Every structure is written in C-alpha cells, then in structure tokens.
Amino acid sequence: MNKQSLRDIKREATANALADAAFALALAKGLDGFVVEDVVQRAGYSRRTFANYYSCKEEAVSMAAVIFNGADEVEAWIGSLNEDMTPLDILYQLMKLQLTGEHLWKLRQLLTLSKQNPTLEPYILSALRSLQITAQDVISDLSRGRYPDGYTHLLVGAVYGAVLPLLDGSMNVLLPGESAPEAPEAVTFDHYLDTMFDYLRKGF
Amino acid sequence: MNKQSLRDIKREATANALADAAFALALAKGLDGFVVEDVVQRAGYSRRTFANYYSCKEEAVSMAAVIFNGADEVEAWIGSLNEDMTPLDILYQLMKLQLTGEHLWKLRQLLTLSKQNPTLEPYILSALRSLQITAQDVISDLSRGRYPDGYTHLLVGAVYGAVLPLLDGSMNVLLPGESAPEAPEAVTFDHYLDTMFDYLRKGF
DNA sequence: TGCTCATTGTGCATATTTGCCCATTGGGCA
DNA sequence: TGCCCAATGGGCAAATATGCACAATGAGCA
Predict the structure, then answer these.
(1) What is the pTM of this model?
(2) pLDDT of residue B181 exceeding 90
(3) For B119-178, how does the pLDDT look when each residue is reduced to its tens digit (9 = 90+)?
(4) Nearest 5°: CA angle at A188, between A182 and A194?
(5) How far: B70 CA to C3 C1' (Å)?
(6) Closest nucleotide to A6's CA, by C1' atom?
(7) Chains A & B: contacts with CB separation below 8 Å
(8) How many Cβ atoms are within 10 Å of B102's Cβ, its own excluded?
(9) Hey, is A11 helix, strand or coil?
(10) Is B52 within 7 A of strand C by CB distance?
C-alpha cells in the first residue's frame, strides 16, 4: 500500500525513536523533569534533528501515543472486509484494531500527565487528530461510492471526538482499583466504546 | 582520547553493521553464496552506502574480523602501564587484549573461507595490517623517547607478520578435535603466541 | 530592578545516506 | 561466437542528520 522506500522507513524510525524516548522520560521524570537534550541523548540523535521533527518535547511525548505498529493487521483486515458493511461497522472494527491495549495505556498515561501539566493537552489533541485523519482516509476509501464523503466525515468526527471523553470516563472508573500499569485493562473502555456505538446506531 | 562526535559514532556504526552483515552471510552461505544487495538488506542500508565504505564484499567480510569492541579496556590498560616495561612486554599484553576469543574465532573463520576462495586473502591481509597500524601507534606512543621509532616498527612488524602463521599453525592443531565454533578455544593459539614471543626475546 | 544562565529556536555549512542513472564486467547460454 | 542479464562501480542530485553559532526566552537570584 505505502511506497515505503528505505528513506521513508528510516525517517519514520527516527521520528518514533525520538517520540519513544520523550515518552519514556516523561513517565520516569514527569513533563518538567527532563529537557530536549535528554531526549536526543537517549534516542541517539542531535538536538538539531529533534527540531527537524518536533517543535517541543510535548509534541514528541504526545506522538508516542499514536505510533501505530499494527499496520499489517489493519491491511489484512481491510482486504477481508465484507462489501455490505456499513461505515459504522467498519469504523467500530477499526477502532478495536487501533486502540489496542498498548495504545490505550499510553493515552491514559498522557492524560494523567496532562492533568499535572496542562501544557500537554493541545498536543494530545493534535495526536488524536492524526489518528482521526488516518481513520477518515480508510473509511472514505472503503465506502467510496456507497456513501457521500459528508456522511463519513461527520461519523468519524463524532467517534473520534468522543475518544477523549471515553478515555476520561474509563479512567475515572478504572483508576481507583487499577492493577499493574504494564498490563493495561481495556475492558471498561471497551464497554464505554460499545455504549458509544449503541448511541450512534440508535440515536442519543 | 578520541573526539568521537555523534557523527563519528554513527559512521563507525554503519561500517560495523555492514561488515557484520557481510561476515554473517559469508558464514551462512559461503563467499559466493550472497551478493552486496543481500548485505545491505540485512544491515538496513542502501547499496550505494555500502560502496561508500567498502569496495567489495570481501573487504567488508574481512573488516568484520578486526572490529574492535574493547577500546575501553585498552584505554584503561594503557593508563595503568609501568614506566619500565619494554616494548616487547607492552606488545605482548596488547596482543593478549586485542586477540580475544571472538577475534580469534572470526580470524579463523576468515582463514577457512579464504582456503575455499583465495579471493579473500588480500583483504584479510589488509585487515590484519590495520590491526598492525593500531598497535604501532600505541607502542610508538608508549615508548616514545625511550626507544627509536625504527626499533618499534621492526618489532611490531615482526609480531604481526607472524599472526597469520600463528593462526594457521593453531588451526592445524585445533581443527581436528575442535569443539563448538561458538565457544572458541584459544589456549593453543596462546601457546603458539608464547612460543613466538620466546623466540623474539631470546632470539630464533 | 537588572543580571546570569540554562534552555530553546533557527540559519547555515558540512557530512552522510539514499535514489536514480548508466556504463562496465563477467558468466551462462543459444 | 555473440547475446543476455545479474551484479557491480560510480557520478549526481536530493533528502536527512550533524555541528556550530547566535539570538530569544524565561526562570532564579542579588
């Protein structure tokens, strides 16, 4: 699907390495506990290169949560799609694929960090927005000719607009009795997600 | 000691990755069982970049055997040297440090490969020569003012000129009853090395 | 207040890597 | 023999990464 030249691969690897390093440092030391120099040292790049990819550490930290490592599964899934599925069904399955345990866990960590330091919030929103764009492209492509673009845009917008509230809601529920952070529990989020799609299907 | 900028580090990493990949392929498939394209694919670089570092796969394979990963130990050892050691003693200890098990094993694999394909031999010689240059620099620096350069040059030349015969000799001895290649046995080589230095000390 | 200093942002030169190109080489085969 | 073709070597431009310099920012402190 993607051209993915060697250059593309390495560019993506650089961006991911920087984002991962920033995210790890944010978890370990808090948003104010490190500087860009620490990030590039951990990732093995120069400060100048960091500036070529991200405008600040907040952006890098946020991007770490949307790094997508399941492109192959999504591709296979797209190929196996039924012709008669509605955009709503497609979108539902896509979110199940995209928002896997690791993603959810990272997003929650991001939200926790942003509670302590609201500077982070706009960058989280941007990161989520990039997820939305990706989903929009997939849905648009899959339902082309069967549904107008306006329909899918509104639908995808509604769903991704609800991600943050969904996360927030499931956090409030989970956080008190939350077990180990390294084994994220997604069941409650899934429940909220199902509820959300029920509303979307049957109307609020 | 070395400036070792980030650029230097990455340049060395590239050269090493390419050499390691070439060496691994040579072991797995033989010198004629792979092409440069295979090397760069395994290492994650382009064919053009390979050409920036090595003129052919034989050169890369040979360089893999002299990649030195014990610079720190050597540095520490240099700092702890006695002022009254002779160049011969220094050189003896340096070879013990340089020619560790992994190096010996790689060099032997190289020799085995070169028996099947003599194309490799000049590149092995070049690789050994680079080891010799390094040793020459260390020895010259350590004995500066106490011994003339001519003396150390002749000495180092004599020793490194004997490395290939030493390897050959110890191979002949070891190969029949050689155990697992992944646990190289260096004791017999060490014995040969000691004999060599005995000759150098007391005269042939 | 004004000063100091760590951090950051950015322009520019240089180094490194890649992609694309084509010429050359050398072995296999009709 | 002559042709074909995979592999190679290398020129060149573009993309990416680095090193360096300097300005801007902003927090801490006398």
Answers:
(1) 0.80
(2) no
(3) 898 889 888 888 888 888 888 888 888 888 888 888 999 998 888 888 877 766 544 345
(4) 130
(5) 48
(6) C18
(7) 7
(8) 14
(9) helix
(10) yes
